[in-house]
Design a protein that fits this description.
Blueprint lengths: L25 H7 L17 E6 L3 H5 L35 E3 L6 H4 L3 E7 L4 E3 L9 E6 L4 E6 L2 E14 L2 E6 L3 H7 L2 E3 L3 E4 L9 E4 L10 E5 L5 E3 L18 E3 L12 E7 L2 H6 E10 L6 E4 L6 E3 L5 E5 L15 E9 L5 E7 L4 E9 H8 L17 H4 L11 E3 L2 H7 L4 E3 L8 E14 H12 L5 H8 L2 E2 L9 E5 L9 E2 L4 E2 L4 E5 L7 E6 L9 E8 L3 E4 L5 E2 L4 E4 L25 E9 L2 E12 L7 E4 L2 E2 L4 E7 L7 E4 L7 E3 L2 E3 L8 E9 L7 E8 L5 E4 L4 E4 L5 H9 L1 E6 L2 E4 L21 E2 L2 E2 L5 E9 L2 E11 L16 H15 L11 H11 L9 H15 L6 H4 L2
Parallel strand pairs: 8-12, 25-27, 29-37, 39-45
Antiparallel strand pairs: 1-8, 1-9, 2-7, 3-4, 3-7, 5-6, 6-7, 10-11, 12-13, 14-15, 15-19, 16-17, 16-20, 18-19, 20-21, 22-25, 22-26, 23-25, 24-25, 27-28, 30-31, 31-35, 32-33, 32-36, 34-35, 36-37, 38-40, 40-43, 41-44, 42-43, 44-45, 46-47, 48-49, 48-52, 50-51, 52-53
Helix pairs in contact: 12-14
Organism: Ruminococcus callidus ATCC 27760
Protein name: Dockerin type I repeat-containing domain protein
InterPro entries: Dockerin_1_rpt, Dockerin_dom_sf, EF_hand_dom, PBP-Tp47_A, PBP-Tp47_dom_C, PBP_Tp47_domC_sf, Shr-like_HID, Tp47_mid_C_dom
């Protein structure tokens, strides 16, 4: 089929339109309401002869001169597309471009009733879809068992299905000047009067199409095709005669539903037609919405596209919606409430217009503690509010979707008590600790939730009669209404009668975080992928409830502790290859398995103050994880080569082996050679990369060893120095690789998060004041035996060191000596505490006060009392009498 205008390409141009929020300017709105002047047909005047027929148009061609809205973001381009996804994950936020669908069961068959549908195979070939029930000359067949979807032409496989597009209405009535008719037929698919058209098949309320095309001057919605100087055609505003032809909808036979909001398919307003709707639904090709607000004047008119806004179902009615997009933004200063006139255009029908009043709903606002499955159910695009306001205590859609199953969006288990019940205390709630001190993070706490007033009243009454149960009853039992109901929360969810919750609703547009740079790691202690969000700033006091990582093919919710760290500045997850993180906690992977090989396009933070998003225009590719391995054998530095074994790499993995810090490194035939003369002992990393960039790299550590000992202890300097004959560089390499120091019988790690710096890695100096989390390494004066181990050095270094420890006990005034002043401070503090003055301090400086009280606790039992004062007085008196006592002599 040929067209006068180019159909939007398969992938669509990725135009970086402005974020589709807020209202357009009044000037743009006014401009889009006035159709450009096009010569109208003049049948009765006899000045022009016309041919009447039906033709297939694009959405842009159909709506361009109808006086409908086009956002300024489209820059006058009626075919403008948008790469942004709506709340259901569809890229329907453009103007009047073709509606693209990735799946064969969404919009394909029902769109073919009245719209031109083209299907594409994976080779880029396109086919005009004919629809089921019409001999299937072009059809799409799915084989679920085999996991394939095939384009079929005349019963034979033509190619693997890739996607489909809904181009525009198929049977638009047009009047074409007779002189231009032959050119028109070359440019457009034309259905002449008397042409038999078929489409669809009867399924419950919907009926198949089997009739003849009949168009004349009285046909509803006729457009005039006017040939332009460049040979293309434009189409006038649709016109209806005073005595229009076509069937009339029986308003008593159809039922218009209540207005719905945020129904889960990207729309912000929706109304359904039920009752005897089947024939109208099968013939519907477009819908116009006129917004009046509180007055009698049209404020804005909006055009729609099938599958992006409109839909008909075999048993659930005609579903008409509007999505905020390049084709629909509310006028500035309006909220969408008030009068809407909805007009349905259907082939063979006169226009059907009905009015709905979109009245503000009344809500009760409060807070809830939400299990992760319930919190993320609506956020991930799952349909909510499935019961049309009828309470269902039996429904558990999150459970039915498998989100409560172990390893999906169930509780997060932590083996350590420090993290599960304190690190995220403001944003999560937890069960009791287990026998190991760990516990479970069950979900998100204090989430703002809105409940429609009528639903709240019914739930309250049911709760009083003990009638509540199930998911809905459990959630409502934890609902705490806010004291001030006049304040709409900055961010909240809506609880529906089936126990589901909407995606987050925000009072303000999402904040576009333009200064955040994600850094990706594919070899992390905490999962298969880790993101460090450099520059992330969500504002002081802003709580992160959840994070959604959006890829080209799906959305993924992140959970606190397991996936979200440091206020969201670090994110990590497992795609099924790394099963445990560094602390031994099991990692869930079921929800995230499909991220391997996908591309991140957006990262959204759901917070107490609203939604904050990082948009990645170029995408961030997640290299495919795999089961390949690399192993390297530790050898002596003098060997000059390291045996390296690669195993189980994917067949198309193009391996490149490297070791960046290894001087002269080169890999060939299973060996990594290096310059043995210049390489020093220590740990080195060997990396195996995929030159194509498709797969994630592998890495392993290898230790190059030596029997030589380049270090010795110098008692006079109190430091580790070069051994006889060793160079300064040799010592520096040794000190950098010190891994453990054993003091007498206690071994301390020298590196890592909790490493203890006993030997200075730069100067070799022994730190007599070295501290661990449990206290000082050297607790008293004396001689200590030190055994030093260094990575790559097979011989430990052992020596003795004399340590002089200054005891600060009883030095309350922190002046370096213990005297009567210190005793006075101790007695003063003790007297005040004994008198009940719990707020008494020795210093207004909090840190200094802490040090003074610690010094006053002479016996180290955690409290300061008269016993401590007695010990201090005894110590001062003994020293004054010339008796050289120690604290060990006094405290026995």
């Amino acid at each position: 089929m040929q067209h006068g205008r180019k159909i939007q390409e398969v992938t669509m141009r990725e135009i970086n339109w402005k974020k589709l929020v807020g209202a357009a300017s009044a000037a743009v709105l006014a401009a889009t309401q006035v159709a450009p002047a096009i010569t109208a047909y003049a049948e009765e005047a006899g000045t022009t002869d016309y041919v009447y027929c039906a033709a297939s148009l694009t959405w842009a061609e159909y709506w361009e001169n109808e006086g409908v809205y086009l956002d300024s973001a489209a820059d006058g381009n009626w075919e403008a597309s948008s790469a942004d996804a709506d709340s259901h994950g569809e890229t329907d936020l453009g103007a009047y471009d073709a509606v693209t669908r990735a799946t064969s069961n969404h919009g394909l068959h029902r769109g073919s009733y009245q719209c031109t549908v083209k299907v594409f195979d994976t080779e880029g070939n396109s086919y005009d879809y004919t629809g089921r029930g019409q001999n299937e000359s072009v059809d799409v067949v799915s084989n679920r068992d085999a996991g394939t979807t095939t384009v079929m032409v005349d019963g034979k496989a033509a190619g693997a299905y890739d996607h489909s597009v809904i181009v525009g209405p198929k049977y638009v009535p047009v009047a074409v000047p007779a002189a231009d008719y032959e050119d028109f037929k070359k440019a457009y698919t034309v259905y002449e009067n008397g042409t038999e058209v078929k489409g669809g098949y009867t399924e419950k309320n919907l009926v198949n199409i089997d009739e003849e095309i009949q168009v004349d001057a009285n046909t509803s919605g006729i457009k005039v095709a006017e040939k332009q100087e460049d040979g293309t055609f434009q189409f006038s505003k649709r016109s209806t005669s005073e005595t229009p032809d076509g069937k009339v909808v029986d308003k008593d036979a159809v039922e218009i539903s209540e207005v719905q909001h945020d129904s889960g398919y990207g729309d912000f307003i929706r109304v359904d037609i039920n009752g005897d709707y089947g024939d109208l639904g099968a013939h519907m090709y477009a819908v116009r919405w006129d917004y009046y607000g509180d007055g009698d004047t049209v404020l804005a008119t909006y055009g729609t596209k099938f599958a992006a806004d409109n839909w008909m179902h075999k048993s659930m009615g005609i579903q008409l919606g509007l999505t905020k997009s390049d084709r629909c933004q509310l006028p500035e200063g309006t909220d969408g409430y008030g009068r809407w006139d909805v007009t349905v255009y259907a082939t063979g029908y006169q226009d059907f217009t009905f009015t709905v009043d979109n009245e503000p709903e009344q809500y009760v606002y409060g807070t809830m503690n939400l299990p992760y499955a319930d919190y993320y159910y609506g956020e991930l695009g799952n349909k909510t509010d499935t019961t049309d306001g009828k309470i269902s205590y039996d429904a558990d859609l999150a459970g039915n979707a498998g989100m409560r199953a172990e390893g999906t969006y169930d509780a997060v288990t932590s083996a350590t008590g420090k993290k599960w019940n304190s690190m995220f205390a403001d944003t999560t709630y937890s069960s009791e600790a287990d026998e190991n001190g760990g516990g479970k993070i069950l979900g998100v706490s204090g989430v703002e939730v809105a409940i429609e007033q009528s639903l709240y009243d019914q739930l309250t009454a049911d709760a009083k009669d003990s009638k509540t149960s199930g998911v809905l009853g459990s959630l409502f039992a934890g609902f705490t209404p806010n004291e001030d109901q006049t304040v709409v929360p900055a961010a909240y969810k809506q609880l529906f009668a089936d126990g589901t919750l909407s995606a987050t609703i925000t009072a303000e547009p999402e904040v576009d975080l333009t200064n955040v740079t994600p850094t990706l790691k594919t070899d992390s202690k905490y999962g298969d992928y880790q993101l460090k969000m450099d520059g992330l700033d969500l504002g002081e006091g802003n709580l992160v409830y959840g994070v959604i990582v959006k890829t080209k093919t799906g959305n993924y919710g992140m959970l606190q502790l397991e996936n979200i760290w440091k206020g969201g500045s670090e994110l990590a997850w497992s795609a099924g290859f790394k099963t445990k993180e560094v602390h031994g906690n099991s990692l869930r992977s079921t929800p995230y398995a499909a991220t391997s090989g996908d591309t991140i396009v957006e990262i959204s933070y759901l917070t107490s103050k609203g939604e904050y998003s990082v948009h990645l225009a170029d995408g961030l590719y997640l290299p495919k994880k795999h089961n390949g391995t690399v192993n390297a054998e530790s050898v002596a530095v003098a060997a000059g080569s390291i045996p390296v074994t690669l195993a189980d790499l994917p067949e198309d993995f193009s391996a490149a082996v490297s070791a960046d810090t290894l001087t002269g490194a080169a890999y060939a035939d299973g060996k990594m050679t290096f310059d043995a003369k210049s390489v020093l002992p220590g740990s080195y990393t060997i990396t195996v990369s995929d030159e194509s960039g498709v797969y994630a790299p592998l890495s392993t550590s290898v230790i190059l060893t030596t029997d030589a000992m380049p270090a010795a202890y110098d008692a006079e300097k109190g430091a580790v120095v070069p051994a006889k004959g060793a160079a300064a560089d040799d010592l520096a390499a040794y000190l950098k690789n010190v891994s453990k120091v054993t003091v007498n019988d206690t071994t301390y790690e020298a590196t890592g998060k909790h490493g203890v710096k006993i030997i200075d890695p730069t100067t070799g100096e022994i730190h007599a004041d070295a501290e661990t989390r449990d206290g000082a390494v050297f607790t008293k004066s004396g001689t200590y035996k030190l055994t030093v181990e260094a990575t790559g050095y097979t011989t430990p270094l052992t020596f003795e060191v004399k340590i002089e420890v200054t005891d600060s006990r009883a030095d309350v005034d922190l002046d370096g000596r213990v005297d009567s002043t210190d005793v006075f401070y101790m007695m003063l503090y003790t007297a005040n505490i004994s008198a009940g003055n719990a707020d008494f301090v020795l210093s207004e400086d909090a840190e200094k006060n802490k040090q003074m009280i610690a010094a006053a606790d002479v016996d180290g039992n955690g409290s300061v009392d008269s016993t401590d004062a007695f010990y201090a007085l005894y110590y001062v008196a003994s020293k004054g009498a010339g008796v050289n006592v120690t604290w060990e002599d006094i405290i026995k």
